[in-house]
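tool=predict chain=A
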Amino acid sequence: MKKFALVLAASALTATAVIAEDAAKEVADTDGNGTYSLAEVQAVYASVTEEAFKAADTDGSGELSAEELKAAVDSGAFAA
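tool=predict ok
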């Protein structure tokens, strides 16, 4: 039972660290238009190039939707 409690505690600490890291990486929609500009993305993911941003903009709108941003981050295309 002690092993189970230790594993559970370690898992909780790891999950908390991951959640905190994700929160720190949150991109702010500073202009409040519901999408994310290159500048807004680069404020968190400084290494994102215009080319990578355009590749993530699958609908060609010039801005990223929340879904496009999540897909780029989840795929590793946007690294901090």
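Confidence is low (pLDDT under 50) at residues 4-21. The chain has one domain: 2-75.
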